[in-house]
Automatic annotation (TrEMBL):
A Gene Ontology term for the protein's cellular component: cytosol
Protein name in UniProt: UDP-N-acetylenolpyruvoylglucosamine reductase
Native source species: Candidatus Merdivivens faecigallinarum
GO MF annotation, one: FAD binding
InterPro entries assigned to the protein according to its UniProt record, in alphabetical order: FAD-bd_PCMH (IPR016166), FAD-bd_PCMH-like_sf (IPR036318), FAD-bd_PCMH_sub1 (IPR016167), FAD-bd_PCMH_sub2 (IPR016169), MurB (IPR003170), MurB_C (IPR011601), MurB_C_sf (IPR036635), Oxid_FAD_bind_N (IPR006094)
The protein's required cofactors: FAD
Catalyses which reaction(s): UDP-N-acetyl-alpha-D-muramate + NADP(+) = UDP-N-acetyl-3-O-(1-carboxyvinyl)-alpha-D-glucosamine + NADPH + H(+)
UniProt keywords, alphabetically: Cell cycle, Cell division, Cell shape, Cell wall biogenesis/degradation, Cytoplasm, FAD, Flavoprotein, NADP, Oxidoreductase, Peptidoglycan synthesis
GO biological process: cell division; cell wall organization; peptidoglycan biosynthetic process; regulation of cell shape
Enzyme class: oxidoreductase
Gene name of the encoded protein: murB
Keyword Glycoprotein (UniProt): no
Amino acid sequence: MNIRNHYPLKDNNTFGMDVVADCYIEYDTRPELLQIINMAKQGLLPRPLLHIGGGSNILFTQDFHGTVLRSRIMGIDRVDGAAMLKVGAGVKWEALCDFCAREGIWGIENLSIIPGEVGGAVVQNIGAYGVELKDVVYSVEAYSLTTGERKIFNNNECKFGYRRSVFTSQYSDWAVVTATFNLSYNPNPNIEYGELRRVIAGYHHRKPEQVDIRYVTQMDIREAIIEIRSSKLPDPEKIGSAGSFFKNPYVERSVYENIAKEFPDAPNYPQPDGRIKLSAAWLIDKCGWKGAVHKGAKCYEKQPLVIVNTGNAKASDIIELAREIQVSVASRFGVDLKPEVKYI
């Protein structure tokens, strides 16, 4: 366990906000986490407690007057020798994707190169290219930061939804320590997203509609997604951002039909409940925000769903730009965009 006071968090959030925590603690084991919780109960640590992962989905708006916790619980362990994996919350998500690809384990290849760590991935129910993490989560082990209580949550108890889980609501003061994923050695390629199919078709020297799913490999999917995401999204090691800033909105069919009158080709994804999922990036682009700059923040020129720190942005610059985008989209399309990023 490593306890540091007045600790700079610039390297612990992908926006690169230059803020300081009163106290910062990294822990490697469950007993260390319980020790931290007991210290907090005894008033030996600044409160509140804030648990972060890779800092890839947060925006610090000021110094944090409390204690920031980060898990360094590692390990990727097979359960009963099957394709079920128990993974430490501190494992980098991309490291898990790479491990699965090398071991021929299917299920998360569509989620390749999403930044962050396993714990945060579970909390946010990350998703991309037709796959959400909820599809493969078997159980989650977590501890209450208030009482130290331990609980194993099954998939249903996690109450996964679009970019949310029970850990973003009812159990938001709990820390995920491990997650168990129910994966498979049996190939099950998912290339329904048009752009993904087009890139893979190029690998096979075929037209998209001619791709034979039987010959699509795990590495085909992984390499295609890495290619697509790398071409659109900034490298967090070089440009500060939190990836997708807004959630894709779900709207009533009548709202979509009004948009389709002017834009018949507007991307749309019908849902089982009758609503339509729209592309936030498309809405933002149609409002002319791509490449727009506001003080130290910018709507990324290659992917308008991303807001970047140009190098010296304040949190207020980013929030103001986000708000202007929200107002613009609501005015033109009648759609309310919600931030995916959590303001702290």
